[in-house]
């Protein structure tokens, strides 16, 4: 069976972008069609400074968010990356396969390193190589992610292809990015040209999965929009990024499409649409945050689930790493 792999960094709390762009879609992929492996990528988080206590808490929060959203540890493998040392080992092999020029083209590195790339960690630079290792260590064939990860998944294919070519094997599969649905790029609520992220400076620009109902309502109410009402068709949202974003969020939360949302609300003003969106969001997110809080009351239980998951992950990963070492010619 084809195998799904995806991951989330525990660098700050979970956002609505992570939920709609990733976790919600992962839940839908659980079932007979795929084997599903989901990972809290703590080794990726430390490519930028993380306070150790925050990292521990963040890892549990992401795991709790995944569980509360419907990732089922009896149907999926759910674990944190650092408990399966094979990730770091395969990443080293891939550091020797990938080319410096490939890394230089990664837009996420440029965004994160900013104007002073000399001061970025070496880990941040090599980040995509570890991400390729995450996926290929499980021979992952399908990687459901948001739009921002597309370039990294394409690089994973380049690494697999060069490895197979250099060693004259047909060992690593060509991974497909799965970027689908109305919310593959949820935007910042204060600036419709920037994506919603865990680390943006103002809390008003994002919905956190642990926000309470009042906070969610307030953030949508204060979300930036233009003054015009919603148009007759989706075309009318072309140069209205903030409006388009709210329509997309509405569609994703209600398992609908932007076209249907526009059909229902065409002509509506923001005084009507925003409260409807806030109600919908609270309706869908409150049960998740309640369950997250319940889970976070018992950190030992979360740790146990992650440990069990790591054992299952290692059962898949260890033979693939062993075979890789053999192909490369590393003596055992
Ligand atoms: P991360 O932790 O930044 O985000 C986790 C997932 O959430 C998606 N996402 C969004 N989707 C839509 N709109 C947004 N505003 C938004 N913000 C985040 C991301 O696209 C991602 O799917 N490098 C990855 C983690 C990773 C990984 C992997 C993913 C490490 N190894 C292997 C897939 C496979 C990252 O930083 O995601």
TrEMBL record:
UniProt binding sites for L-tryptophan: 134
Major localisation: cytoplasm
A GO CC annotation given for this chain: cytosol
Cellular compartment(s): Cytoplasm
Entry keyword Membrane: no
One Pfam assignment: tRNA-synt_1b
UniProt EC number: 6.1.1.2
EC category: ligase
Residues at which ATP binds: 9-11, 17-18, 146-148, 186, 195-199
GO BP field: tryptophanyl-tRNA aminoacylation
Catalyzed reaction equations: tRNA(Trp) + L-tryptophan + ATP = L-tryptophyl-tRNA(Trp) + AMP + diphosphate + H(+)
Sequence motif: 'KMSKS' region, positions: 195-199
Similarity annotation: Belongs to the class-I aminoacyl-tRNA synthetase family.
NCBIfam families tied to this protein: trpS
Self-association and partners: Homodimer.
Protein purpose: Catalyzes the attachment of tryptophan to tRNA(Trp).
Protein name, UniProt field: Tryptophan--tRNA ligase
Organism the protein comes from: Flavimaricola marinus
């Amino acid at each position: 069976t084809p195998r799904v792999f995806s991951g989330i960094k525990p660098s700050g709390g979970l956002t609505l972008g992570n939920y709609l762009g990733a976790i919600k879609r992962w839940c839908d992929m659980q079932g007979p069609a795929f084997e599903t492996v989901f990972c809290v990528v703590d080794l990726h988080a430390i490519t930028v400074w993380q306070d150790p206590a925050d990292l521990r808490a963040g890892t549990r929060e992401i795991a709790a968010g995944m569980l509360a959203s419907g990732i089922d540890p009896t149907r999926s493998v759910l674990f944190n990356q650092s408990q399966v040392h094979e990730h770091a080992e395969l990443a080293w092999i891939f550091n020797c396969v990938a080319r410096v020029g490939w890394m230089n083209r990664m837009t996420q590195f440029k965004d994160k390193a900013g104007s002073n790339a000399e001061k970025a960690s070496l880990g941040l630079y090599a980040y995509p190589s570890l991400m390729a290792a995450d996926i290929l260590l499980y021979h992952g064939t399908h990687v459901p992610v948001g739009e921002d990860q597309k370039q990294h998944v394409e690089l994973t294919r380049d690494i697999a292809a060069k490895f197979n070519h250099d060693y004259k094997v047909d060992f690593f599969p060509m991974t497909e990015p799965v970027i689908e649905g109305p919310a593959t790029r949820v935007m910042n609520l204060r600036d419709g040209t920037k994506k919603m992220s865990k680390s943006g400076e103002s809390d008003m620009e994002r919905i956190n999965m642990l926000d309470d109902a009042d906070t969610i309502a307030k953030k949508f109410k204060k979300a930036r929009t233009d003054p015009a009402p919603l148009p007759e068709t989706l075309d009318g949202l072309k140069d209205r990024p903030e409006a388009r974003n709210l329509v997309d969020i509405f569609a994703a939360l209600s398992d609908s499409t932007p076209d249907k949302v526009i059909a229902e609300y065409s002509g509506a003003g923001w005084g009507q649409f925003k409260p409807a969106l806030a109600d919908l969001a609270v309706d869908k997110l409150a049960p998740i945050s309640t369950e997250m809080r319940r889970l976070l009351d018992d950190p030992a239980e979360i740790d146990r689930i992650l440990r069990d998951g790591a054992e299952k992950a290692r059962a898949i990963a260890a033979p693939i790493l062993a075979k890789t070492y053999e192909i490369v010619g590393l003596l055992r």
